[in-house]
Amino acid sequence: MVHETRSRAHAAAQEEGKVASKKQKTESKDQERGQHVASKNKKSAENKGQDAESEAPTKSKKLKAEESEPNGNGAAAREFAELCKAIGEHISVEDMRKILQANGQDASGSEDAVISRCEDMMFYGPLEKCPICGGQLEFKEWKYKCTGNYSEWARCTFSTNNPSRKSGPIKIPDDIKDDFIHKWLKQQEGKEFPKRDIDEEAHIFSGMMIALSGRMSRSHGYFKEQIMKHGGKVNNSVLGVTCVVASPAERDKGGSGGFAEALERGTPVVSENWIIDSIEKKEVQPLAAYDIVSDIVPEGRGLPLGQLDPSEGTIETLTAEVKLPGKRAVHKDSKLEKDGGCIFEKDSIIYNCAFALCDLGCDMNQLCIMQLIIVPENHLHLFYKKGPIGHEQMAEERVEDFGTRVNDAIKEFVRLFEEVTGNEFEPWEREKKFEKKSMKMYPLDMDVGVDVRYGGAALRQLGTAAAHCKLDPSVSFLVKQLCGQEIYRYALMEMAQDLPDLPIGMLTDLHLKRGEEMLLQMRQDAELVPESGPEADAFWTEISNKWFTLFPTTRPYILRGFEQIADNVASGLETVRDINDASHLIGDVFGLTLDDPLSECYKKLGCSINPVAEDSDDYKMILRYLEKTYEPVRVDDVVRYRTPLPVHLPPNMSNDKLAGLWCVC
Hints:
This protein has 23 helices and 24 strands. Strands 1, 14, 17, 18, 19, 20 and 21 form a seven-stranded antiparallel β-sheet that branches. α8 links the parallel β9 and β10.
C-alpha cells in the first residue's frame, strides 16, 4: 500500500504557469524553425494544381525588403522555412536519423529533436563537436547549446551564436532513394552554406502571451513595446496568457478585474521587474521568482527558499527548531515517529540514506531521502522523498507499507539506491565504495551516533539551565553559548544549510575528509584554468557542482576565483566541521531530565575552563588571536566575544576537536 503524505492540489495551476497555450507553443516552435506562421498568402490556381513532388526549393527566390523572419533577415530565412516544410513531407524520421549519423551528428533523442537537427544540418551545414567537451551542439532557445557532459559532475555549459561547421557536401546513405533530397543536394553543389543569423534578444519572450494589469511604474505602452520588441505578444484578456504583469502596489490596492481573474484561473501574476530583468539578462527569468500573489492564495507561496528574498528565507527558517538528523533519525514527514517508528537495521546495515545532486548548468539542486522504518508489531515501511532543495511543494514523497515482507522491502530499497545513484548498495554501505555517475546523485554519509541531536537548546531552556547551573558565571555563560541553538542557527543560516532535511550537522569524518580532499584538489586545478572564456566557465561550474553536491544548500551559486574558494568553500568546510564536532560533544543532554544540563555539557568537554584577568598576558594574547583570526559575531545579543577563558585540554583530547567550540565563543 502506498499513500501520499503531501497534497499536490496546486500542481495544475503551477503547470499552467510554466507554459503557454498549445497555439503559443506551436508558434514558438515554428519560429525556431524559421516558419512565418502569421502569413496566410493565397495560393494561385497554378500552385494548387502542382504535383506533391514539387521542385525542391532553391536559394534564388527573392523576398520583399520589408519582410523579416524570426530566424534572421532576407531570403535565407524564408528558404530555410520552405526546406523545413519539404523535409517534413518527403523524409521519414528514421531516414533523418541515418542522414545525421552519416554526417557525424547525434541521431538519438525524440522525433522533434531529430527533425530540428536534420533541418539545421541540411540548410546550414553539419556542426562540429563542442570545443569544450566534444559533445553535440543543438539549436534551442535561440542559440546553439552543448548537450554533452563536461564530467560526471556537470553538464557542459558551452553555448554560442556562431558555431563551427564542417566543410564539404552533405552525405546521404545509399539506401535513401527519395528524389527530393538528391535534387536538393544537386542544386547546392558549389555553394557555401549560409550563416544562421540569430538575434537572441529579439526572442526572449518568444511564444509567450502576456497581459498587463493596473497602474504600473511606466505606461502600458512602454511595456507592450518592450515585450513585442523581444518576441512576445500582449493580450488585453487574461484568458490563455502565460502570465499577468502588475505592480506590487496594484496588489495592495486589491487589483483590477484582470488581476482577480488571474487569481481565479491560477495564472501567474508577476511584478514588472520580471520583464526588466529578463531583458537585462537576455533570457526569460523564472516566473515563480517574481510572483507577487501566491502568498494570498490557499496554497501559500510555494516558492523554493533559493528563490525567496534572503530576508524572507531567514524569517521562514528562524521559526523552525534546529534539528541535526543522524543515521537513526526517523524523518518527520513519514509521520511514523509518533507511532514509535525507528530505522530498520539488519546484518549491521542501517537502512537510511540521503543523497544530493547539484548541477547549476541545468538549474538542478535536489535532495533525496530513503528510509526503512519499522513500527510496533513489526510493520515495515519504506519512506521515499525526492525533490528540489528548499521547495517542499515540488517534492515527490511516499510511504509504502510492506507489512512483514522484510525481503521485499529491502529489495525495493536496494533497487531505489541503484536507480538514484547508479551504484550498488552494499559496497557503499559496508566499504564506502562509490563512483559518481553522470546525472546521478551522491550520498551524504550520515553519522550513526544517536537518534536526533537538537543542535543545542532553545533560549528558554538555556535560561532555566543557567539559573540552576553550579559553574562559575563566566564559564556558565560560555557553555551556554556552546549549547545554544542560536549559534548553530546562525552558522547554518549563513551558509543556507539550515533546512531540517539537510544532515549537514551529522556527517561522518569520512565525508568531511572527502570535502577537504576536494577543496585541496579544487585549489590545485584552479591554477591551470584561464581567467575567462568557455573553458573557465565550464571548470568553475563543475567545481561548484561538486561542492554543493557534497555540502548541499538552498542557495547554490557558481564559485569563481581563489578568493571565493578561501572565503566561502574553506571557511564553509571549517564551519561544518565545527558544527559536527560540537554536536557530537554536546549530544542531546537537553532532552534528558537533568538538574544541571550545563554542568553536564561542561563535563563532556573533558577540559577545564577558567576566567583570566584583563591585565594578564594570557588575556592580551587571546584577544590578539581573536582580532586577527575571527570576526566578532553578534546574533540578537546572544553571541558575542566576552572575557577570554583559557582552555586546558586533557592529554587524550586534540586541539582540533575543541577548535570549533572555541571559535564560536
